[in-house]
Amino acid sequence: xxxxxxxxxxxxxxxxxxxxxxxxxxxxxxxxxxxxxxxxxxxxxxxxxxxxxxxxxxxxxxxxxxx
Length: 67
Hints:
Layout lengths: L1 H18 L3 H43 L2
Helix pairs in contact: 1-2
């Protein structure tokens, strides 16, 4: 999954580099892409860990209420 995001980032930045010659704009776009990719990864991790954490707390609650 990380390779997919890396390849997507490289393709998008190469496309932007050919369209924009302004270095400041190019850097801004690259930072924006990096932030978007990080946000996507964090959201996916939070969804996976959220389900796992919810299951752990549910099991603990059930064990405490039903001795």
